[in-house]
C-alpha cells in the first residue's frame, strides 16, 4: 500500500449547479391543495433546498381540477383503483391517467435525480394510500396514487420518497445518498463513460455500494473488469448501481466497511490507535455512538497517513456534512 503525505482530503461533494428534484408542489408551500391550503415541509425547502433545484408538480391542478376543488379518493381494486370525488362521485380516473402519461414524458426531459411525493395523496402517494371499497366499508391501506404510479413505472430506478418517510433518519440518509450518487454517475456519463471513466467511478464508489449491497457491489466489480469488451457496460452498470443504492445500508454493513478501511492503517498506526479505532467501530455497532464518529476518526487517519485509495472514497463524504445525515444513532 503506497502512502503519501500530499494525498488530498477525502473527496467532498462538489459545489456545482443544483441537482434537479421533482416534488409535490404543496410541500413547497404552494396553496394547491383541495381546500386552497398547502403542506409546507420546511426541511425540504430549507435544508435540502440548499442543494437542489425543485421541479414542482401538482397533479390535480395541472390536470385541470382547479383550486379549491372537491376532495377525492381512490375507490375499487387497490391494484387498479379509480379516482372519484367524495361528494358528487365524479370519476376522474381517465383524465388523471391521460394527464399523468403526458406529464411523465415531459419530466423525462428535466434530468431529475429523484422525486419527493406527498404521502397519502390519491394522486401522489407512493405507498399505503387508502383505497375505499365500491359499496362502503373500511379502506385498504395498500394503494398508490395515480401520478406516483405512472412516475415510478416510467422511471423505475430514479430515487423516490414521501415527505413523511423522510422524518426517519435512515430513510432520509439513504434517499439523499441515492440522489448524490445518481448525480455523480450522470456527471460521469456527460464527460464520456469510457472504460477508464467507469473504472475510476467504481473505484471511488465501491465502499459506498458495499454498505448498501455487498452482493451487487461484487457484481459491479466483475462487470467493470470486463467493461472493455462489453459495449453495453455503462447501461448495465447503472442498473446495478441504482439497484444497490436502493437497498438501505445497515449497521452491520457499515461496520464491515469501517473494519475494511481500518485494515489500511495496520502498518502506519500504533497499537493504541488501532485499538481506539476498533473500540469506536464497536461502539457504533452497539448503538452507543452515531456513524459520524468512526467516519470522522477514519478521515483523520486518512489525512494523517495519506492513504490515497481511501481519500478518494465517496463513502467518507457521500453528501454535504451540513445535512447532518450521519449524526443519528
UniProtKB/TrEMBL annotation:
It comes from the Bacteria. Residues 206-320 form the DUF1722 domain. This is DUF1722 domain-containing protein.
